[in-house]
Amino acid sequence: MRKNIVLLALLLALFLAGGGSLAAQSMSKVTIIEAWFIHNESMGDPVAVEKGFYKKLNLDVKVVGGGPGLSPIDRVMAEAKKGGVVFGVDYPYNLLEAREKQKLPLVVVAHDFQKSAVRLISWKELKSARDIEGTVATWIGYDKQIKAAIGADWAARIKVVNQQGDPATIGSWLKKTYQFAHAMLYNEVLVAKRNAKDKYYIYSFPDFGIDWPENVVFTTEEIVQKYPQVVAAFVQGRYEGYKYALANRQEAVQIL
Q1: Separation in Å, CA 147 to CA 93, 160, 173, 240
Q2: Which of 10, 64, 119, 138 has CA 20 to 30 A from 189's CA?
């Protein structure tokens, strides 16, 4: 953690030493790999591209969508090994695990959301996380919260499978192929409301004592060290995109 703080402090110092401006520099090619398909959650990047916020900061940004079975961490590492300036979006606990267990040189440079949009949808009523037994469907890298909520014996209580099936990846849950599925407030929760024919229940993980943040922007230590001004400019442009999208929602929807 101390090493990460030092790297980010160095990034900021170098950026400010350069006057906080990239106006005199040539365009830098950058790739951002989203955690999921390009949608509301990732609106900052496509809006920043479309409205020219990145271009004003001398960045030529390519936005790459994610999807089922695609690890942002693996994809960022692969692109970085080829020499590209690349960022990814993932959950902070996935980054911590990658650093601790795989010893990957990854650092967080920005944090998108204060509250998690992840919910658990269930065909049965739950009094606590200990009532969760059976098959739980989720997306790659999203299983940490439910395992932590259940406890150390989670493997004896649940089987985690890849979430799939239209509409919006909860098709199999709607058919009751499995009892539990993960759902985002802005997507699968709405789909369940429209399509579920029987009574079901929605739980947030703070209900089970797990209140973790989500969606951080990350890159490698080497990229932060070599291109601190590019990193700072990318973060600035990304959140200019979010700010514009939130103030101009209908236009942002059309851009997406």
Answers
A1: 12, 9, 19, 36
A2: 64
Containing domain of residue 92, as a range? 2-114+213-255
- Token code pair at residue 214: 């989500």
Query: Helices 228-247 and 2-17, interaxial angle, to 10°?
Result: 90
Are 34 and 62 members of one domain?
A: yes
10-residue mean pLDDT series, the chain (256 residues): 45 47 71 92 95 98 91 97 97 92 97 89 97 93 91 97 89 96 94 97 95 92 98 98 96 91
- Contact present, 231 and 11 (Cβ < 8 Å): yes
**Tokens representing 241?**
């995109």
For the whole model, what pTM was predicted?
0.77
DSSP 57: T
pLDDT confidence of residue 25: 62
Domain total for the chain? 2
Whether residue 68 is preceded by a cis peptide bond, meaning omega within 30 degrees of 0, is: no
Residue 81: predicted pLDDT? 97
- Judged by DSSP in three states, 168 sits in coil
